[in-house]
Amino acid sequence: MLIISGGSLSAGELTDKPVQQDSTVSDDTPWPEKRSSRSAWENIVSFPGLVVYTPFKLFFQGTKRGVNAAANRKWFDRLAALLQFRDVTWGALPTYSSRAGIGLKLYRNDVITEGAQFQLGFSNGIATPKRQRYFLRLKNVRMGELLRFGARARYQNYADERFYGIGPSSRERDETSFAHENSSFEASLDAHVSKRLIAGINFGYEINNVLPGASDERPTIGDIYTLAELPGLENQLNFWRGIISLAYDGRNAPGNPFGGTMLELNAATYIQNSDDPQYGFTRMSADISQFINIFRQRVLVLRLSAMITETESGKQVPFYYLSELGRTATIRGLSRGRFLDKDRLFGSLEWRYPLMIRQGNGIDASLFFDFGQVADDISNVAIRDMEPVFGVGFRIYSKRLLIANIQIARSSELTRVHLSIND
Q1: pTM of this prediction?
Q2: Across all residues in the chain, what is the average pLDDT?
Q3: Which of 220, 318, 360, 388 has the highest CB neighbour number within 10 Å of its CB?
């Protein structure tokens, strides 16, 4: 038996020779009784925190074990290879979003100039086959050292959009349906002021039609509202559009940022193309996200976004151009178009936890809390009217981009699942 007490043990003492037992220690020597690390009152005080923390601990540990088991079988490597079929010059990406459905994006790199890309994409709804989206896009065409040119043509027809009324007091039971057909053509010019700062201008033309909705479960919007009650119900509303933007991207990794700030500022004006224009408005928005690495790529994401709409004198805003809460990019636990009004304010807090990281690619889980509301004036947004939403999510990402994202969100009205792949 080897007993080491007091001081250090030199290399010369590490031998097989028997060591003389300390004569002051015998088998009958009473040892101090082991005490609990916590007293009774400490256990009582900490119990509520333990109750709150345990579900989160089980969630993260359970998902991490499941991901590790799948990673050992290389399931995720095969999935990433399937979702990112590409070579140096061209590629094909399967796409999916809860709104547009399943589709395909084809692209070709280094067209016209080095680094430029041409894209062709289409998608079609699964549950609602009349949902369609098609686009052609050219981006990042170099015009000197600083300027980049881009252009896009897009047609989309969403045959089962929902309308609940205007304002924060709109009711879920007043739900109606409509189809929104939109064709747009645009050209953009971006100035890369620095590695992280981009200033841009965008000019476009949009053609809008409102048609009867495809749903048999909800009344069509035109059966409930008149044009006098709801501006924008008529067909062939055409707009010239101009946008000025400023974007700062300080994220340290585009696909999976765990530090930095992202800021977007936009000002847009819409002018109706008509001899007797009834519509005309200006819209300004600001969106800021802060990524904070707490420890070991456990990331806290803070986001705040605001949008303000101002109409021209004597003019109106079509209802489908109003500020909206209900998209995946806003509050994730609401039906699309659930709240509409001129202005909106929303924010979110999200905690991301890495489940697997391999050479910059990986999977993480998240817990999030969204909140926000619309109003005729942003100064009228009240905290008591904010819609709270809680949820969980999983992301698959590469070094350069987000590959797949699934989010499950719960509001006071419903539970909603969002899935996007290469979208």
Answers
A1: 0.77
A2: 83
A3: 318
